[in-house]
Design goal:
This protein is an alpha/beta fold. It is built from 26 helices and 28 strands. Bound molecules: nicotinamide-adenine-dinucleotide (NAD).
């Protein structure tokens, strides 16, 4: 799946925005997908209500077609088969059958897009499968959800979704933008009446109006009961047409956000109003729920209130502060919550799902297309693969990818810096097994009695504070651990891959670093346990090969980042992203002019597998990394831009032996393996940030980054 995508979406409605929030969401998303060059066919059931209230029949950004019933879908079977991916939305009539038909017909991945996640889960809890069957969740390749946070975890862990991802709504900043208009109200609220929101509206707006008779308020929306005693300074508007929303917000000094009870309970469920008002630069006062801080920076981009007093205090803010919050909100929308951001997420996740499904091992073919083509492992032989360190950041991604290829994977890990959480996906797979063991110790018989075709050695802490915590153990992990695994490789005839590191170049005098450079390493400093351990592991590995004891591959890995990096382990990307998301000061060591080259994890896994599967003569060590070099200051700038964070930079002293420049020369990887990284820093950082954002614990509870060096292995 590369270049522009052919997508088929079966959704509730695109043609009518009457009485549903789906059409607005789809319209924004589809426009953004079209702008990114994708071809979308939207299939809508000819339902009486929507047919009678169509406000869009001929969109210029997608093809819109109607079908009458399930049988009528057959007409589109060819399109569905030819599509790169298919998406079935919530509330589609006969959705269970439609979803089944899509999964049976499509060749590419099929995703479920839930615009109503809390409602869906409440329904499933009651055994109501109106549009989604509980046991179908595991059969969809992806579950896109309007609700992020712990709900995603639930979808994966309890319902067995292979990948549940937040795909929030968004606001088009070209439509929702600040307008010059006289201020009519100090605080407005736009929303249909609902029983569960009314007590909050009563506390945060109506009571505030009573206590501040000199201020003006507005409540806009239908279905409010006639017996509500509105104070005289509350103006009621029965209906504000969507086209007039920007003007409505422009006329409000502040606007109030009140969230449905089921969305508050689930948390991480931002409503479209939030994004629309923020895009208009109207400062928002919101009710409080988990995960709000992962969407907007509290206090800088949005205000929160639980009581009337909180609201009155906010309304009292000086104009300059009010303006700054409005501007902050708009800035955050522009950097994280536009339809383009949602389209990017959708695109990236669909590609990842396709990769999981059909492209288990990726072999680059740069000469022909500049993109990677899938290479299936020989499915008949089903490789038996041992991944030491498989519960770590890189190891767990490697296990997932190998399992996708149909391989049988045994992960051996002592869980020193890795975690079972990283293996959640892998543990659901029948071909996966985990054995807790420390490779410094002789390997237990339940490992050495087995046969393997491939052994990857990724076991070793990679973050400076963690590998320095027990330097002797780190050194022995590289030396004794590698020896134990090499012995096993010899015994079982497996090809062996060592994950070495750019740290073997130390603080380099040659730049960028080719594999022929011998390095400049301090053998007595605090980093030596790692650097020298890896150098020694390389020596052992090449001696093993020279002695004809087996086939080896050595990857010199440069800084890699991505989802599952722990915020607390002191590596620069995770530290900067998590500090930015939490609104904390960002720690930069030294003046930030030291450079690093950051490689996205998917690219690295491609490289490791390409190297392991390289069948030619033993190629010697190969650098794997991204040659796009940048200073730590530049990294911070990009992260601030993407997260929209207002965090400030806090400078600390450079750690001992911190390398000043780091950039791989990957000419050899390109020539020998045809590999090079293809993920841009912005794409990779956005994916990493979304992962932090969508974590069960959310950004607010991301463990604080260690106050240790944000220098990286
Ligand atoms: P990580 O700390 O997330 O993973 C290392 C894994 O090895 C963890 O699961 C840990 O519990 C396990 N482990 C450590 N010591 C062990 C032992 N004695 N026995 C069994 N298991 C043990 O680190 P990572 O980023 O995933 O790195 C994986 C490998 O790649 C490491 O060898 C590292 O040196 C190398 N590397 C990584 C990077 C990077 O940027 N991520 C850069 C250069 C090299």
């Amino acid at each position: 799946m590369s270049g522009s995508l052919k997508l088929v979406i079966l959704g509730l409605s695109l043609s009518s925005s009457w009485g549903n929030g789906h059409a607005t969401t789809y319209r924004a998303l589809l426009k953004a997908l079209a702008a990114r060059g994708h071809d979308v066919l939207f299939l809508e059931r000819n339902a009486t209500w929507y047919a009678a209230h169509r406000d869009l029949t001929d969109p210029d950004y997608c093809r819109l077609a109607f079908y009458d019933d399930l049988a009528g879908l057959e007409r589109w079977a060819e399109e569905v088969r030819g599509a790169d991916a298919v998406i079935v939305g919530s509330y589609v009539p006969e959705g269970v059958a439609v979803g089944r038909w899509a999964r049976e017909t499509a060749v590419g991945p099929v995703a479920f897009y839930d615009i109503d996640t809390p409602v869906t889960l409440a329904k499933l809890g009651r055994g109501d499968e109106e549009y989604l069957a509980a046991d179908a969740i595991a059969d969809f390749d992806l579950y896109f959800s309007f609700t992020g946070g712990p709900t995603l975890d639930r979808l994966e862990r309890i319902f067995g979704s292979p990948a549940a991802r937040a795909l929030y709504c968004s606001a088009d900043p070209d439509i929702y933008r600040p307008l010059e208009a006289p201020r009519r109200w100090d605080l407005s609220y736009l929303g249909t009446y609902s029983d569960d929101r009314q007590p909050v509206l009563e506390r945060l707006l109506i009571e505030a109006a009573r206590r501040a008779p000199h201020l003006k308020f507005a409540v806009a929306g239908p279905q409010y009961p006639a017996d509500i005693a509105w104070p005289a300074n509350v103006e009621r508007l029965e209906h504000v047409a969507p086209a007039d929303h920007p003007a409505f917000y422009a006329a409000s000094r502040f606007t109030l956000n009140v969230t449905r009870a089921d969305m508050v309970a689930a948390g991480f469920s931002p409503s479209i109003r939030l994004f629309e008002a923020a895009a208009c630069a109207t400062p928002i006062i919101s009710d409080v729920w988990d995960g709000l801080d992962t969407v907007f920076g509290l206090g800088q981009e949005i205000l929160t209130a639980t009581s009337t007093d909180d609201v009155l205090a906010a309304l009292d803010l000086p104009e300059a502060e009010r303006d700054a919050i409005g501007q902050g909100g708009r800035r955050r929308v522009l950097t994280a919550h536009t339809p383009t951001h949602r389209a990017e997420t959708l695109e990236r996740e669909l590609r990842a799902a396709a990769r999981r499904r059909t492209a288990p091992l990726m072999t680059p073919d740069l000469k022909t297309s500049g993109t990677r083509e899938p290479m299936m492992l020989d499915q008949t032989t089903k490789r038996r693969i041992l991944v030491a360190g498989g519960a770590g950041f890189l190891g767990s991604h490697l296990c997932d990818r190998l399992l996708d290829s149909g391989a049988r994977v045994l992960c051996v890990d002592n869980l020193l810096t890795g975690s079972m959480d990283n293996l959640r996906q892998a543990l659901r797979r029948p071909n996966f097994e985990f054995i807790e063991a420390d490779i410094v110790e002789p390997l237990p018989a339940r490992i050495t009695s087995r046969a393997f075709d491939r052994i990857y050695n990724l076991a070793c802490p990679a973050s400076p504070p963690l590998y320095q915590a027990d330097p002797e153990h780190t050194l022995l992990t590289s030396v004794l651990g590698t020896k134990h695994l090499l012995d096993l490789a010899e015994k079982t005839g497996a090809r062996f891959l060592l994950s070495s590191t750019s740290e073997i170049y130390g603080d380099p005098h040659v730049h960028p670093q080719p594999e022929t450079y011998w390095g400049h390493v301090n053998s007595t400093g605090p980093r030596a346990c790692y650097d020298e351990g890896k150098r020694c592991a390389e020596t052992l590995t090449f001696d093993f090969s020279r002695a004809g004891r087996g086939e080896v591959r050595v990857a010199r890995i440069f800084n890699t980042y991505g989802p599952r990096l722990s915020a607390a382990d002191g590596r620069v990307v995770s530290s900067v992203v998590s500090q930015a998301l939490a609104g904390d000061d960002i720690t930069v060591f030294g003046d930030g002019s030291q450079t690093r080259s950051f490689c996205y994890v998917d690219d690295m896994i491609d490289g490791l597998i390409a190297l392991m599967e390289h069948d030619g003569p033993e190629p010697g060590p190969i650098n794997l990394g991204n040659p796009a070099e940048m200073t730590v200051n530049e990294l911070v700038e990009v992260v601030l831009k993407i997260t929209g964070s207002t965090s400030r930079v806090k400078r600390m002293d450079l750690p001992v032996d911190d390398p000043k420049r780091r950039r791989p020369d990957i000419a050899k990887a390109q020539t020998v393996l045809g590999w090079r990284p293809i993920t841009t820093l912005e794409q990779g950082l956005t994916a990493t940030m979304n992962w932090f954002d969508g974590r069960a614990d959310g950004a607010a509870s991301i463990p604080k980054p260690a106050a240790e060096p944000a220098a990286v292995a």
